[in-house]
Structure formats: C-alpha cells, structure tokens
Model the fold of this input.
Amino acid sequence: MLERYRREISVAGAILALAVVLAFVAPGFFTLQNQTDLLLTNMPVLIVALGMTLVILAGQIDISVGSVFAICGVAAGVLAKMGLPTPIAGLAACAIGAAFGALNGALVAYVRIPSIVVTLAMMVALRDGLRWTTQGAWIQNLPPDFQWFGLSQSASQSATFFCAVLLLFGFAWGLRNLAAGRAVYATGSNADAARLSGIHPNLVTCAVFIVTGTLTGFAAMLNSVRFNQIPSNAGLGLELKVIAAVVVGGTAITGGKGTILGTLLGMILLGMIGPALTFLGVSAYWERAIQGVIILAAVAVDALRARSGRYAGSPAPAGA
Amino acid sequence: MPPTPLLQATSITKSYAGLKALSNVSLELRAGEVHALIGENGAGKSTLIKIITGAVTADSGTLAVGGQAVAHNSPDISRALGIAAIYQQPSLFPHLTIAENIALAVESGSAWRRLDWTARARLAAGLLARAGASLDPGKLVGSLSMPEQQIVEIAKALGAEAKILIMDEPTASLSDREVESLFGVVALLRSQGVGIIYISHRLEEISAIADRVTVLRDGHTIATRDMQGVDRAELIRLMVGRELSAVFPKRQVPIGETVLRAVGLGSRAAGVHDITLEVRRGEILGLAGLVGSGRTQLAETIFGLTPADSGTMEVGESGALRIESPAAAIRHGIGYVPEDRRQHGIVLEMPIAANVSLANLASVSRAGLISETRECALAERYIGQLRVKTQSAHAEAGSLSGGNQQKVALARWLAIKPTVLILDEPTQGVDVGSKAEIHKLMCDLAEAGLAIIMISSELPEILGMSDRIAVMHAGTIAGFLSRAEATQHKILSLALGHEASPDMGQV
Done:
C-alpha cells in the first residue's frame, strides 16, 4: 500500500515540511485571507490539471490549454455582453473548449500527428489569432450580473470551490472505478495491448483532449467572473503550471502511471512556493527557478526508479 | 590441387547460455559459386552468418578468408576482408539518395573532408550498372521498390569490394518477377567471381540458382552436396530427419461441436486469402508454416485486428458474421495471446490484477463500477491456477519475470471465458519447465471444452500437441493433416509449397 503511493507520500511530506517552516518563520501565511486568495487563484489551474492528468496518462500532452483558456474567457465575456445569460455564456465557453479539444484529439488520434506538434501549433495559432482579433484590448463593460455570476462574492467563491472539489473527487473516483478510467491507463501504458484487449485507443486519445478542452473552458469561466474585465492575454504560461503540477504529482510523462491525488498534491506544493517566498522575504524572482528545480528533481526520481524497478532479467526499453 | 576456397569455416561451435546453437559446423565457399544454406527455423543458419560477419564470436572453430585465418573477427574486420551481407529487410537510409547510401558504405576518411558529389554520383552509377540496374543515383531510397532497394544493397556490397556476399532470404518480400530480376543479378555477380552464400526457405529457388547446398539441422552440418543430382525430396529429408526430442503431455479428450468456422476468409491488408478452416470444442488445431507464411496474419484477421475483406466467419451458432475489431472478437468469445507478449500482451505499468481484468472489466464490475475486491479475487484465482510467482495481485506486471508475465497475459484471456483461444508461439523464449507447464495447461483447457488454435514454428510442438494440423504457405492453408498422418516431413513439404505425396511419408 505504501509502496503504491510512494510519490504522493513524499510530495505530501514536502508540503508538510514547507508548512512547518512557514508556521515558525511566517505565521502570516496561514491567515484565512491569504489561504482563500491562494485557493481561488489556483482553482482554475487545478481544474485544467485534472484534464491534463488524463492527457498525460494517455501518453499525450496538451500545451494549448493556456491559449484555449484565453479564448474561452474572452468568448464568454463577449457573449455575455451580447446579452446572453451568464450560465449560457459559461456553457458556451465549455463548448468552445471542447471543440478545440476535439480538433486536437482528432489530429493526434486519427491524423497521427504527435500531440506536442499539434498542440504547439494550436497554442501559437490561437494565441495570436486572439491577439489579432481583440487587438490586445480587454473585454470591459461586462453586464453587472456577469461578475460573480450575479451572486455575492462569497457565495460565488463558495460555489467555485464546491465545483472544483466535486470535479476533483469525480475524476479521482472515475479514474479508479470506471472502465473508461482503466482504458486511459491502458492506452498510455501500452496502446497495442489495449487494442488487443478490446479498447479503442484512438477514441480514448480523442476523448482525453475533449475532456481537457471542456475543463479548460469551465476554468476560464470561473476565472473570468472574478474580475470586472477579461484580459485577452489570460492563461499565459498556464500550460507550464499545469504540466508541472501533474509531473511533480508523480504522473509519468511517458503515460500509463499516475493519480489525481498526486496532481492535487503537486498543485499544492507548486502553488505554495511563490507566496511562501514572499512571506520568507525572498525575492519572488526565485519562484520559477525553485519550481524548475522541483520539477527536475521529480522527473529525475522517476527516471532513476524506472531504471531500478524493472525485473532484472529483461533489459529496460531503450529511452525509458 | 583445387583452388583455395574464398571462405572456409571449420568446426564452428557456439553456445548461448548453455544451449548449443552450432556444433562443429563447417562451410566452404568457392569463388564464383552460389552456395545455398538451408535448414529449418532454429537450425543455426543465422548464428553461422553472424559468426561469418563478425557480429558474434564463435566459441571454437576457425574461419579463413582466401586461405588466411581470421583470428579475431568483428563487423569491421569482416567488411575489410570483403564480406558483405544482405538481409530480408534492406538496411538503408530512406531519406538519403542512392548515391549517399552507397557512399556511406564505401567512403572513408576524416569527418571534415570535402565531399565530392560528382564523384559520388559517378561511383554510384557505376556500381548500379555492375549490379545490372539503371537507377538514378540521385533518387531517394525511400521512393524505391523493395527489389530496387535490394539492388542498392548489392551495389553497396560491390562498392565495398565484397568478394563474399551473404544473402539472407532476399526474396521473402519480392514478387515472382522481381525474384527473376534478382536472379539475373546473382548470375552476373557469380560470373564476376563473387562467392555467394544464399539462404532461402524456397527450395525451388535453390534448385534454380545454387551450385552447391549445405544443410544444417539442430546446429549440425548434415551434408554439403552438389545441386546437380539432388532432388527436393532429398533436401527435405536432410532438413528434418529428427526424432521427437520432447515428450508432450497431450491427452485425447472428446472433440465436440464446431465453435469457429471460417469459409474463404481473406484480408488483403494482412496478406491472407481463401482460408477455410474450423475448430471444435476440445480440439487443439496446430497452425504450422514457415516464418512469413501468414500464420500470425491469419490470427490477426480472425481476431479483427486486420478485419477480413472477403469470406465469412461463424462463431458457435452465430451465423455468418464479420469481426471488425478486437472488441467484437472478445464479445464473441475469441481470445488471442500474441507472439510478442512484452510488446503487445501486457501492460507493464499496471498491477497484475488490472492486467488480468483488462479485456473483461464487465465481469469484475457492478453497475459499471469496477469492484477492486472482485478484481483482486479474479486475479488471485489465476495466480493460483497458473502458478504465477508474485507476492501480491497488486504488484506491477513489469516487476515479474518473463515467464510470469506470459502467464499474466494468458490469464487475461482466460478471464474472458473464451470459447476459442488463439495462442501465437505460446512457448517461444520460455524455459523448459514453464514450457511443460504451458503444454499441460493447454491440455487442461481443451479438456474443459475450449477450442485452441496454436501457432508454432517448432515442429515437434506442433506434432506433439495438435489434434489436427493446418499448414500455411504463401498466405493460405496449403493442407490439413490429422494427428495420425502428420509427420515433420509432410508438414515441411506442405509448408514449402509442395503437395504431401505418399512416398515422402517414410523418413
């Protein structure tokens, strides 16, 4: 049992250690206000990370999420300004995300272009397409019931939090208990064996991109309602944050191995670092550097374990 | 005094992990002769070739080229001595031109030397002409047909001033017309004094082209003969002529009704055609044939991996149906344990339990939810039945030894409760102990009413385990043999494309 969750336990340990240090050095970190802020900033990222976990488990990657995030947020704002009710605008954001996901998925699964190439192209094309369309302008003068869904700020924040927790549990549970979840693992680990077992790996690949797109649209919506204007450059660097959280959480970048719990913990650890630095009086410029070191350490540990973990009688596959 | 032979291999012995691949094998190649090397799969042809080309080192024995003993062989040394090999699959760079491919094999010098493109093209054109072809040296190799690529390989060998050319199944992927043009080139080379070692399963080719033939069997040189005065029946007799070395635990069980019937089944993508066969409850149908005869492709067609585009199939009382995907095959109770279990059979990152339930998650689910308890119980059952050596059903499949991984792959297919089970080379690469266990298990399964199709390259296994044997040749079934009438000789005759005639029966 412990062996199975080794990565989750070590990341949790790191979080705990960081928390203990902060508790002594900077108790201010644990004020309710600070914690709430942290939670709300990271909520949309976590929701995208759920989808990304599936994509990486299936042996693919999606670096277009940041651009899709921006487009979905802007689209929701534009539609709301056209008079669409806020919930409908939110659904539209999800649908737009799903459509881009489907496009990514189809190109990867059926046209057989490597996902890094497809989503890199998509990332650049969508980002610059949006910049050209909006001329860099932010979406302003949103209808009054757009911000916080027309609810009070605290009610809206609670709702957001509730949605994220629901999604988190739903994905963690489904990945473990549904045949579809099993299919994701099998596809990422050994697509040939999966096909022989009656799974349709192409369908699985397509589906994980669609799920990620939809979640990205949803996250963009939740993010947009926090402010009274929508930046057209939202989600810059989102893909890096999300992929980093998934990888630090122990999901193998080669697919087939990982958990939602790991992603959550990876998210918490990486999300804590920046604010913790501020509280510790270290320049915030160190944040990305330290995150980079953590990611490298996580991947290095995976690589070392992969080398020693296999049955000694058979050679490890090249490049593993 | 006869002229010094080009190549003289004497008393070559080689063991792999205590298993003798070659013992006291000798081969002599003269200038300007085509010397055929024949033998069953596993007779030791490849090992001998590897020793001649320096890819592996012999345990004992001597190798002499042009009368000079070669003390330490290596790929570089053998190349310098003028030995070149051409394999079934050309090893060329598809994104480079013909001239560049040839230059890579021929040129040498500093990494910073200036390349002379005109000289390269001229050299390539000259070599291609010597190989009897007029190809544009500037063409990309990737755009060439298979025989044209073979020509480039030959040109490479000529450019390296090869005196000894080894051709390992060069015609396996060629059409008849292409084979003829290749033979033209071989004849040309022979007239230029090149010595050619020619390996092929196709006896008619050997009769057509070879001057002499050496037969290997079980790692021994059986005979070297002049091709004139040897007939094919004689060659077949020399190639087999072996007693069954293992005792098989085959039990006779009552054979029931037909569970799988294929009529005129074919798939262009898989390269199999006009397959008509049936398997019954409790029966083990052996599927024999040489490598490349389409056995695995037939299995993949039945299993829906490369769906059939002609003919029909019936499973049980289903009536005629088309199986379009593995999922459909599984629904109809067909299981398929592929040949390369590490690559296709097992999901290394998954626990054993998840591997076992993968093809039949419904059986361990309740209302669509996977029950870990049930999944675990299922895995435990097969871990017990197949005696998988592991501490727990939660262990990763990748942590098991090869033999145990195979058992897990098999367990997955038993877990779908199949009516037909296709086993592709079930005992390949398995040690003797596990082999006996697998054979016993197959008998148990047959006794329990399963119909088994067993693909095997090992004739003793086919003869020892099958109730009936289907022999494949060139993408279709060349004939059926009952357990009683089957002999290695008859199987090999069918596999080589000859009718099994009664006079061949007595070996």
In short: The longest strand of chain B covers residues 19-29. Residues 31 and 262 of chain B are 51 Å apart (CA to CA). The two ends of chain B are 38 Å apart (CA to CA). Chain B is about 35% helix and 25% strand.
